[in-house]
Amino acid sequence: MSIEQEKKVLNGCIVNDSASQKALYNMFAPTMFGICLRYASDYHTAEDILQDGFIKVFRSINKFREEGSLEGWLKRIFVNTAIEYYRKTAKSYRFSPLELAGEKSFEDFSFYSLEHNELLELIQKLPDGYRLVFNLYIIEGYAHDDIAKKLKINIGTSKSQLARAKKYLRKLIKEQRAAEEQALQQAHSLLPGYA
């Protein structure tokens, strides 16, 4: 979509034109749903966050100042909507106590060999607190002090949650690879001449 077309859709949304709203939704829903899936623990929760996010978008579209990209503005709304969703649905975040011993860098992950959907499934298996901090720090690029302010936690807790999320993901990847290896060995054992 060209800049002129995007501007036309944006102006239509400002005056509540349903065709423009549908066009904006169709243009950005797949990307925004990907964000929702990363923050949600399941598909249906992601759908709820997506719906809530677009309601917020259409209610505040007139506040978009065109200082950055429309997509960037939308992403911030959807990240904030996901965080608000967890504030409303969870009595408290399940943040674990501070423990940073043995922290390794993110680069030692074996994510490069994972398909996008495999990585998404693993992220969705993270406990809520881990998943929120992981997404905000690794995916969205927030600093720990910004995460702490956004989630109303201390910086040490943010760092701890990230360390624990990485450790948990390493464990999940190791388990997944072990299961795949076992399945492969079982398949090979069924082949004639395999010893």
Tell me the CATH superfamily of the largest domain.
Answer: RNA polymerase sigma factor, region 2, helix turn helix motif
CATH architecture of the largest domain: Orthogonal Bundle
Order of helices and strands: HHHHHHHH
The averaged pLDDT comes out at 84
Say what oligomer this is: single chain
Number of strands: 0
Which sheet architecture does the biggest sheet show?
none
**Tally of separate helices:** 8
Fraction of residues in helices? 55-70%
Distance between the termini: 58 Å
Counting structural domains, the number is: 2
The radius of gyration is: 20 Å
Query: Could you name the CATH topology of the largest domain?
Result: Rna Polymerase Sigma Factor, Chain: A
Indicate the low-confidence ranges by residue numbers.
Answer: 95-106
Percent strand: under 5%
Which geometry do the CA atoms define? globular
Return the CATH class of the largest domain: Mainly Alpha
User: Which class do the helix and strand fractions yield?
Assistant: mainly alpha
Mind explaining what this structure looks like?
This protein is mainly alpha-helical. It has two domains: 3-89, Orthogonal Bundle (Rna Polymerase Sigma Factor, Chain: A), CATH 1.10.1740; 106-189, Orthogonal Bundle (Arc Repressor Mutant, subunit A), CATH 1.10.10. Helix content is 70%, strand content 0%. The chain has eight helices and no strands. The protein has helices at residues 3-14, 18-39, 43-60, 70-89, 116-124, 128-139, 144-151, 155-189. Helix 1 (3-14) crosses helix 2 and helix 3 (43-60) crosses helix 4. 24% of the residues are buried. Residues 95-106 have low confidence and may be disordered.
